[in-house]
Task: inverse folding
């Protein structure tokens, strides 16, 4: 068996550190809390964790506004705590990935403090400064992702600076080689400390048009869409120069053995795959978010899986994501009845899967009372259902007060259903979603065909999505019923000794199949040769 890099066979689990486990009773999760919960991740079968930012930050965007790239925010702990987390995770066989935020810093980062201090400051050019338009006002029509113009006037020097996100997150100028060198140094700092990789934030925004041309009007814009959709981000995102930047980042990571780069990219499939880079010289895994927004219909999913499969460059390793800290929880998006189908899909497709914390117990999008809203996007651009607090609420560990997350009130409210829906309860219930995830993960980890097997014969038959995985002599078939009606599919494997390896209703395991397969409402099955 030829060996494959660890990140191709791994399962990634995203931790939003503020909400995983609080160890010091301040209502906010922290690094020692994550260390405490490593045995849980081992129990679940997780092999890699990715932590959203833990660096010093004024927390205007909850850590995605960094004021020091090479330290830990006291809210989360210390550098020693991180060293311990890395060592303990590794001792448990778990890799650790951190978040790299190269596009912007916090307004409080000393680089920006210097940069804004005068037009002649040596760091002036580290950020994107422009004069007002000749008629006064903003330099061009570029919009912020988080509401309003992307330009902020700084009275001190009379120029505007550009921010893709909040005004408190000024964009770095990636055309300046010193900026690149500084970020690459930060990467090396963490690689030397032993981390296994980075998820690179907002990577498709990093370079902006050198001529600052206006973005074109979007002719398909509907007033019900967020205001920034009024323009096509032609000159502010996915610029050709990004190829060079991702290749440089890759060279930095290739300076260390066995490290991983994942790119955050919300782009159509044909543009997404460009971030593997020429001859795979870019990020190892451009995050594939197609399942995050797809409407949950067999035909739609079959099309997008096929499209993604066909768009991959030779040697490009696929990956799949069902949830993250920016999008509504899967359980609320597709309905509780379908969460096992989603899990089965995620863990039987070809490519590295990413599980968002809490999805393994079916956490729902929490309804946040107006006075508890914390997300700056919801506060800046209300009314478009963009709020991200509802998918960032604390993990439900048990039925005790504060859900075992903290000993005090948590920074975001705990989901209303935590006394019924929590890890402790699902651990002791053989039929729970948590146990189903464990079984699926164990099945995947032990199966060469699920890890390596080619994906083909992707079909939609009515509400049933089916596909095959094949590796050497082994074949596995997957059939997922996306509806609440029972349904029948034709037999998918010819072998006479085919049986159900796993059903979302466990009592069917090992059942031998006749010529057609009956699926119950919302049932998914994995078929293969009897062992
Ligand atoms: C993407 C991150 O996932 C999101 O949470 C953040 O607000 C923006 N990038 C800005 O860093
Ligand atoms: Mg804490």
Result:
């Amino acid at each position: 068996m030829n060996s494959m890099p660890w990140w191709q066979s791994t399962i990634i689990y995203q931790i939003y550190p503020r909400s995983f486990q609080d160890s010091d009773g301040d209502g906010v999760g922290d690094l020692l809390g994550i260390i405490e919960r490593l045995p849980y991740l081992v129990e679940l079968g997780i092999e890699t964790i990715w932590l959203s930012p833990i660096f010093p930050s004024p927390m205007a965007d909850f850590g995605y506004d960094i004021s020091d790239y090479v330290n830990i925010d006291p809210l989360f702990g210390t550098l020693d705590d991180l060293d311990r987390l890395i060592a303990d995770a590794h001792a448990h066989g778990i890799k650790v990935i951190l978040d790299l935020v190269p596009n912007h810093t916090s307004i409080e980062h000393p680089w920006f403090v210097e940069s804004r201090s005068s037009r002649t400051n040596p760091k002036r050019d580290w950020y994107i400064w422009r004069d007002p338009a000749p008629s006064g006002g903003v330099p061009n029509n570029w919009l912020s992702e988080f509401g309003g113009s992307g330009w902020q006037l700084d009275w001190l020097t009379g120029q505007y600076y550009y921010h893709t996100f909040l005004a408190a997150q000024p964009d770095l100028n990636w055309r300046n080689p010193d900026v690149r060198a500084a970020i690459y140094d930060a990467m090396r700092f963490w690689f030397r400390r032993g981390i296994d990789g980075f998820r690179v934030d907002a990577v498709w925004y990093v370079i902006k048009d050198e001529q600052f041309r206006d973005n074109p009007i979007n002719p398909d814009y509907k007033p019900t869409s967020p205001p920034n959709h009024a323009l096509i981000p032609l000159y502010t995102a996915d610029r050709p120069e990004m190829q060079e930047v991702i290749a440089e980042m890759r060279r930095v990571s290739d300076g260390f053995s066995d490290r991983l780069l994942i790119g955050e990219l919300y782009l159509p499939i044909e543009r997404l795959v460009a971030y593997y880079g020429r001859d795979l010289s870019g990020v190892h895994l451009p995050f594939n978010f197609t399942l995050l927004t797809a409407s949950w219909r067999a035909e739609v999913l079959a099309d997008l899986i096929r499209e993604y499969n066909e768009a991959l460059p030779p040697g490009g390793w696929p990956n799949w994501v069902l949830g993250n800290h920016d999008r509504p929880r899967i359980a609320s998006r597709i309905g509780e009845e379908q969460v096992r189908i989603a899990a089965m899909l995620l863990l039987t497709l070809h490519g590295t899967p990413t599980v968002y914390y809490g999805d393994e117990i079916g956490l729902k999008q929490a309804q946040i009372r107006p006075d508890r809203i914390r997300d700056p996007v919801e506060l800046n651009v209300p009314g478009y259902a963009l709020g991200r607090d509802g998918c960032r609420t604390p993990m439900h560990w048990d039925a005790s007060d504060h859900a075992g997350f903290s000993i005090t009130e948590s920074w975001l409210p705990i989901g209303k259903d935590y006394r019924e829906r929590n890890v402790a309860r699902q651990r002791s219930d053989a039929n729970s979603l948590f146990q189903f995830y464990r079984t699926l993960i164990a099945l995947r980890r032990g199966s060469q065909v699920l890890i390596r097997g080619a994906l083909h014969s992707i079909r939609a038959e009515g509400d049933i999505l089916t596909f095959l995985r094949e590796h050497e002599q082994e074949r596995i078939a997957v059939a997922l019923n996306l509806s609440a009606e029972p349904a029948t599919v034709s037999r998918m494997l010819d072998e006479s000794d085919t049986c159900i390896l796993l059903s979302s209703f466990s009592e069917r395991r090992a059942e031998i199949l006749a010529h057609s397969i009956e699926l119950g409402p919302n049932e998914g099955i994995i078929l293969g040769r009897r062992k």
About this structure: The two ends are 20 Å apart (CA to CA). The first strand starts at residue 12 and ends at 15.
